[in-house]
Structures are given as C-alpha cells and as structure tokens.
Design a protein that fits this description.
mainly alpha; 2 domains; 70% helix
C-alpha cells in the first residue's frame, strides 16, 4: 500500500468515526429537547461559549427575552456544533489529500469534493434547524445528511483498505446479490427517514403499547396531516404540533416500515449466511467457496444489527422512551446502515 493510501485511509477512518459521534450527539441533543438550547447560530446567545455563570445567563436572557436560558441544554447544543465543525475541518483535509494524489482514480477526488459540498449543506441545515424552530422536514434532512456523510466516508475507507476485499465469487452469484443489497440499502434509508420524521414530530410515544397501539391493532390515524411536509414559517415545533391521530399515523408508518425491513433485510442476511455455509458450498466450485466465508460474515453482521435495532425499538415503546435506549436506537440504526454499505463494498470490485 502506498504512503498516500495509508494517510487517506487513516484520515477517512478518523473522519468516519467522528461522523458517527456527531450523529449520536445530534440524536442525544434532539432527544433531550436541547435542539433550541441556543436560539441563534453559529454561536450561542451571541457568544462562542454557552452561558454558564449567573452574569452570562442574565446577559443572555436580556439579549434574547423570548428564549428561556437553560445552560445545560445550551452546552449540549454547542458541543454538537463543536464536533460538527471539527468534522468539517477533517473533511476539508480529506479533500486536500485526495486532490493532491493525481496518480489514482478520479472518483476519489469527485467523492471528496462532494463530501465538502455536503458538509457545507449540512451546516446550513443545522442553521435552519435553529432559525426555523425545529421544522420537522429540516430536522429529518439534517439527520439524513449526516448519515450520507458517514456512509460515504465509510465507503471511502473500505475502498482504501486491503483487509476487507470484495468477494471473488462466481459472477452469476454476485449479479443476483447486488440488486438485493441495493434494495436493502433503500429500505434501511427509508426506515431511518421515517424514524427521523417520527422523532422530529415527537410521535415516538403516540403508541405507548406494543404490539398494539393505544390498545388497538389499527387506531385512529390521519396520514394526510401526519405527513404534511411544509406548514409555513413562524411555527415553533418544539414539543410537536401534530394531533394525536396525525402523530399516531407517523408512528404506525414507522412500525410498518420496521416490519418490512425486518422481513426483507432479515431474509437477505439469512440468505447470505446460507450461501456462505459449508453445506451449501460443498457442491460449489473453488471460487464460490472463497466467497462463502465473507458473505456469511456480512450476513451475520447485518442480522445482529437488525435484531438489536428491532429489540431497542420495542424497548423504547414499552419503557416510554428512556434517553439512553432512544440514543442507542439511533446508533444501532447507523450500524445497520453501515453493515449494508459494507456488503455493497464486498459485492462490487474496486475501481482504480
């Protein structure tokens, strides 16, 4: 491996790790109702640091009389912003390293340039999250943008390392698996978007029981109101603005999505494990046997993340959304997404 490869790999891994931390910090900030802990952007009450002492709190209250100054929430928001700012610097460094190495594939430079543009747009979404007072479509977009950053950084790191090589199985086998893996990725992304919409609309507790909802298998729902993306400007969405029927519709959509993901991704994971199993490969050629063990491992990783995610979702409902479990639910969703991205890396040969 060339020296530039090693440097790019290390920076990509570090940046991906920080991106994961930023996603978790964002979830923690949102779930602890600290999304408006600072009413302005990029500072906090006009300062680079959140107010902590009595004179600072009094000055912040005087400068922003319409906001309730809560130092604990303000610090949660600012720590998230500091981490996100550091992430932006690392992505810029990653782009510099990629553009300096002209000997390697142009796709790396295109990807690095796109990551820079995406992190700038993420910063704008972070600003709009505050200035538009937690508008759900912006909050959900901010979440998806963060996951896109992380997924692309992980993909770049996978392409730069040599340990987890793409499998070298029969072409027919790989052709069958690739569209299935892309379908799994699309379903997982859609389900995460539904989860983000549920959280942004404070609909996670619309159904406080499981497997029923409000004691019924299909309660009163209002999908039209629940999935209205734009409600105009000047609305403060902190605490949620949906009716119970609309919030229930959002929650039920998330549950139905979870069932679809469980069935499809669970089937794909088990299929990969079967394809990689010794009993199945005993009748296959040598190339299929070489492909079997990695595919089995990828399927197992997906299955573990999937089952953990479903379990955390159920625990969230029956225990009324405790903060550690809710944050873990977000974190494992990301791990499930990354497991599918890793599978796609394994099924596609690298480009130069």
């Amino acid at each position: 491996m060339q020296k530039s490869n090693v440097l790019l790999l290390r920076v990509a891994l570090l940046t991906a790790l920080l991106a994961y931390a930023v996603v978790l910090l964002g979830a923690y900030t949102r779930l602890s109702d600290a999304g408006l802990g600072c009413p302005d952007w990029p500072g906090c009450y006009g300062k680079l640091l959140a107010p902590s002492h009595a004179p600072e709190i009094d000055a912040a209250a005087e400068a922003y009389p319409d906001s309730r100054v809560e130092p604990a929430k303000a610090w949660k928001e600012m720590i998230h912003r500091y981490a996100a700012g550091t992430l932006g610097i690392l992505i810029a460094l990653l782009a510099v390293i990629s553009f300096r190495d002209k000997r390697r594939g142009a796709w790396r430079r295109w990807l690095a340039g796109f990551l820079v543009a995406l992190v700038i747009f993420q910063a704008l979404l972070g600003m709009w999250t505050v200035t538009l007072q937690l508008k759900p479509v912006v909050v959900m977009g901010h979440l998806l943008g963060g996951l896109a950053l992380l997924g692309l950084l992980w993909w770049l790191a996978l392409r730069e390392q040599l340990r987890w090589k793409p499998v070298s199985g029969p072409a027919a086998l790989l052709r069958r698996l690739r569209p299935r893996a892309w379908t799994a990725l699309a379903l997982v992304i859609l389900q995460i978007a539904l989860g983000g919409w549920t959280s942004a609309n404070y609909a996670a507790l619309a159904c406080p029981d499981f497997p029923t909802c409000q004691g019924e298998w299909w309660p009163n729902v209002d999908f039209l109101d629940g999935f209205t993306l734009w409600r105009g400007l000047g609305v403060n969405y902190e605490g949620g603005v949906l009716s119970l029927a609309a919030a229930t519709a959002v929650h039920m959509a998330h549950r139905l999505g979870a069932l679809i993901v469980l069935l499809y991704v669970g089937w794909l994971a088990l299929h990969l494990m079967r394809v990689g199993g010794k009993e199945h490969l005993i009748r296959q050629d040598e190339r299929a046997q070489r492909a079997g063990l990695p595919l089995c491992r990828y399927g197992l990783a997906m299955l573990i993340a999937l089952l953990a995610q479903v379990a955390l979702g159920v625990v969230n409902v029956v225990t009324l959304l405790p903060l550690p479990v809710a944050v873990a639910h977000n974190g494992v969703a990301v791990l499930l997404l990354l497991s599918v991205v890793t599978l796609l890396h394994a099924l596609h040969p690298p480009r130069a």
